[in-house]
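Tokens in:
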């Protein structure tokens, strides 16, 4: 959707065997603009992100990240999160379960009211920009809202 594109640029293709040739459509300028807009948004928010992350890690000793995607990888590369006490990364994608991201285990969570206690977690950082509100609404059904942290306002 148009709402997702500036936050999460991806490249995808669909193929279908055809009996005639179809012209290739050059979307270079469009795609380049989307990627530049995304990079500029991240740069604009980098200082704010570090400030928010610093507040979270200074108050919490065992942190989980919700989401093992592009944004989380970027947060590890460009923010204080890389030096924080991240115990686990939760992701609902079963293909990521058991993998490591930045040396941290990725786990498909079994949602329950004791999930954080069972895993020794005292804070969850949502590692998604475009889906953070949906993730937050889902997590508050199981976790104390004061332990769930959004990094973006009005995502």
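Residues out:
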């Amino acid at each position: 959707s148009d709402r997702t594109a500036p936050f999460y640029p991806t490249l995808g293709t669909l193929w279908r065997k055809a009996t005639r040739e179809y012209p290739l459509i050059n979307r270079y300028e469009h795609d380049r603009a989307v990627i530049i807009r995304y990079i500029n948004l991240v740069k604009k928010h980098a200082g704010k992100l570090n400030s928010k992350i610093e507040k979270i890690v200074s108050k919490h000793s065992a942190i989980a990240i919700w989401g093992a995607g592009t944004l989380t990888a970027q947060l590890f590369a460009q923010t204080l999160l890389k030096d924080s006490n991240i115990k686990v990364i939760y992701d609902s994608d079963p293909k990521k379960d058991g993998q490591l991201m930045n040396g941290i285990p990725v786990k498909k969570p079994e949602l329950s009211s004791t999930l954080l206690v069972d895993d020794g977690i005292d804070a969850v950082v949502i590692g998604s920009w475009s889906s953070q509100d949906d993730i937050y609404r889902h997590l508050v059904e199981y976790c104390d809202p004061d332990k769930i942290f959004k990094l973006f306002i009005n995502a």
